[in-house]
Queue: 2 jobs
Job 1
Amino acid sequence: MKKLVIILDCAHGADVKGKCSPDGTHREYKWSRLICGKLRDKLESLGYRVEYTNKTENEIGLSQRKNIANNIKINSDQVKFLISLHNNAAGNGSNWTNATGFEIFTSNKEMLALGLPILHIAAFYLMFDGLQVSLSGILKGLKMTKVASVSLIAGYWLFGLPFGYYLAYHYHMSLRGFWIGLATSFLFMSIIFLVVIHRKFAKLKKLYS
């Protein structure tokens, strides 16, 4: 059994006004529950125990969520790790800006020791993920959907996960190894996409020149 017990804390609820993008298309509570669900599935597949502070679609209040987290029973050799997923707005006082990124807050020294080594890997993971999504969109625009699909499957399932598994268990890198594997897979896919796109544009340039 893993020593880390993950507690997922979903943001707000459907009954909380606001908490959305300026045009109302992005709802924070929906995004938070979607990502928490994906995290739960992934973490449980890795053998982690995952708990929730709120399994409903509505807000139950910060105090109640805190009490639920504090009252979750764990073994003496286990440690709780609470993840509360939220979206923050960015603006200059009159207009919304396009700031991106993420922030993490904790006052627990043990959690900092566990989380800090993964942060830089997670940053590269997000950067490479965004890059491969953008390049995949270009391939789809060039009607090369099959190339994008095959590369994604090969990069993730045939390269990223096996590589992450190898690092996690052969080199005893645990969760850090999986993150490195996934980040590397997105970098691998991005390089493939760049090469394919470069060759495609080179052919088009030669054809129309």
Job 2
Amino acid sequence: MEVIYPRCAGLDVHKDTLVADARIVTGREVKHNVETFAATTSGLLALEQWLSAHNVTHVAMEATGVHWKPGWHELEGRFELVLAKARHIRNLPGRKTYVNDGMWNADLLAHGLIRCSVVPPEPIQHLRDLTRTRKQLVREIAQHTQRIQKTLEDANVKITGLITDLLGVSGRAIIAALVAGETDPERLAEPPLLAYQREIAEDDARFCFWVKSRQIGATTHTIAWKALKRAVRTGYPQIFLSASKRQVQVFNQSIRKLAAEHLQIELQGSKEQILLHRAGKPWGGFIFLSTNSATAQSYSGDVYIDEACWIPRFAELERVASGMATLKQYTKLYASSVSTVTHPAWRLWAGETGKDGKARPDAIKRITTTVHDAIAGGNDLIDVEVLKAEYSEEAFAQLFLCRPIDDEQSVFKLAQLERCQSDPAAWGPAGGAPCSTCAANGTGQPGTAWRRGGGTAPPLETHT
């Protein structure tokens, strides 16, 4: 038969060793040089040197499991490699030895009788390994999910019809609670709450004032879940106010997310209102108001005022907003980090609501949660030492230890400065026209009058 590759080699690949046969044709003489190498990195390097010493140009190997890959990676780019399927180069029965297999592979390669399998470039190999691994992981997830479902059905725990993803946030929380021995269905449906969060979420006081550290999950977990659960249970409207319009929308987003994750409900509505329905009839909902006392009324329901100690003209707003919870079935929850001792919200917290500024008895339930309370309650996302290094002692005490700033002796008290504040959203060009006080607004015509609350300011003067 015609010899196509006079200097070639055949490899018989195994887990621990490789048997190499260098087939060298000189004239009419064929010489087989056989050597065994370890399937280690050093052994593969020795194999490469050995093949180079024999001036081998082409190397054939059998695709044996994954054992061929290290040798292929080491020899690729140095020799012309041919990967053969086992059934295409099967030797005659009774003649199978490691040496014979290597020589057989070399003989087949020399005469061009091996059909080469496609081995893609290295980047494609990496991508294929990644996609195959992902496919296998997805398959394993499905298998484990089915096993969990089977176990729950065997115990007559039917939650698979209530949640869409058994291994999602809600599903994992329910399974963890079941393992811990929880049997209350309402508790099983709740998001994971820490001890201090649960105290607020389960509190049923008529009027509760919660003074808290910043960034302890008050808005996104505690208050939002409390309002969502109360709205579903009672059908009472849940009315939210905060120090800014943007902040009150955080409640809107948090309630939607909690409803989707833990109640499997996709809430529909606008930025101002989300309505609930039960059996085709209205069943309360959520109302998101501004801090304007002129608009924060005309509703009835449970009232939540967030960041009360930072709301300008709080006393005026509180008189109007608290009236929305006049009926005995409604509740009020005020929550805030602290600002100054002269702020009306802090005076309400301190009980200094009398005309003489002294404390008087009231029915407010007061709860304080400092950063240390949050950590003791299971919050492991806060590093107190890092915060102390980043904030001054006074700022740390105010923001994280719930100690308000004493501005009694200040030249300008916070209450006085608040009178100078204005809502930027209330300002705009007269007649609703786009701003034209500078060329950047698109009109290039300076001097447009501005208005606030219906009033019009005189045109700006221009000087050249």
